[in-house]
Amino acid sequence: MSLGEVLRRFSYGVAGPLSTDPRGTPVVAPRNLTADGLDLTALRYTTEPSPAAARLRPGDILVARVRPHEDRSPLRFAVWRGEISGATFSHAVSRLVPHKDLLLADYLEAWLRHPQVLQQIEVLSWSTERELLNTDIVLPALEEQVRMVHVIGKLAAERADRKIQLAKVRLIRAALRSSLLGGDASDA
Length: 188
Description:
Layout: E1 7-12, E2 25-28, E3 33-34, E4 37-38, E5 44-46, E6 61-65, E7 75-79, E8 88-89, E9 93-98, H1 105-113, H2 115-122, H3 129-133, H4 142-181
Parallel strand pairs: 2-8
Antiparallel strand pairs: 1-9, 2-5, 3-4, 6-7, 6-9
């Protein structure tokens, strides 16, 4: 089954000037999609009118190409969960709207992040959406998608906990070095 068969819609966002003036409509741009999801701290706004069809709704999947890093994919994905009311998305961001009776948004995001799938879709030119929409998707039953999303969520939480623990260990190590060497911890 192709990705296009399980999506209700594929669309690009609005084009126009963006500013930091919060009196406009919030616009999610590629800079707001990170390897871990959404970061709305550097949000931009538009005063241009945006059509209702361009407004983000919970369950929309946002996809953007960003400058590639050596260890990271140039593609970013995030599930919109209604973080900001009335927000829209920029022309450099694509929106995938899954058929809710066939495909969970969280499963689609996890599937898109899978290394084999990333390898397959990174090479697409994306000059036409047909290439992405023709990509074959592994589509288990909804119950299995729920189970898989739950397992992936647990693993992500464990990973986040390990990152916090590692940061604490690094702080302790720096403090010990500072104490033992009698210098500034930042020298380490």
